[in-house]
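User: Structure tokens for both sequences below?

Assistant:
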Amino acid sequence: MKGMERKTFEEIFLRWKDVVFREAYRWCGNEWDAEDITQEVFLRFWRWGKIPENPGVFLLRITRNLCVDRHRKKEGYPQPEPEKRKDDIMDLLSALSSLPEKERLCIELRYVEGLSIKEIGRILSIPEGTVKTHIFRGKKRLKKVLEDRWRISGK
């Protein structure tokens, strides 16, 4: 490998594989596509051979791009109707995906991955105050989206 040791790659893979999978799953909505995209993300990362300043942002950007590409390829083909999601967790994931990208990333890194505000700021290359603002605004939007969905569905 050019600029990255195998051990370094393995450490990054172990740290980020679940995050990449969950991001791919949110975009694709199914495990099979999410697994394929996760494999492709790390294959591209391995081939690239360099250690980016912020591996998490780099990996999530690749993930998003691959998901968008896959979605574009599927357009024009009849897609199965999505199953009704009655489970609160599925509602939450859906609502999260409707947030602006930076708000969603900050919320996921904070509450799903358990990272500190400082760590999130470092990963996303933004000031801690901006992280707090994205989290505050994201939670406010999330609450509104969920209240609207649950009011309509009668939950």
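Moving on to the next sequence.
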Amino acid sequence: MILKNLKKAFIKNSRLEGFTLIELLVGSVIVAIASLAMFTGIDYIQTSSHRLRIKERAFEELKSYTELWKGKIAADDVSEGGDLSYSKVVCLDHNPPFQENECKNEATIFADINLIDTQNSNAKRKGVKTRIEWETVFGATQLIDFYVEQMVFSE
């Protein structure tokens, strides 16, 4: 009888209100999987955000460069030669953010200007095709291009 009471007391005391090793390991695995999924999502969002920021900056640079050439054409400040090509290198992302000397993402902007045949009109017009090319972090080449026609206003 004493042995039975000892067994009951031992079994009751050995089963304390805690977790077993297996329960702790399973819990740790679940937390690790959830953390991995969360960090993967955060990394994807940061990469997508960076890619979008670079594309937006490239769009603004290209729009500005196109407006520059439209203004030059309107003012008749472009040579009268045949097809003309220009290019310019711009920085899309500085590294570190406030240091202007180091560029993290460079892009090249191209402008091709050609005289448009205006047989039925006295107005002289030129076509401007501008494009910007840059490389992504993964090595893929990105491209945005515009085409506009601008009248030449001469005095």
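User: Anything stand out in the second?

Assistant: Strands lie at 84-94, 103-116, 125-135, 141-151.
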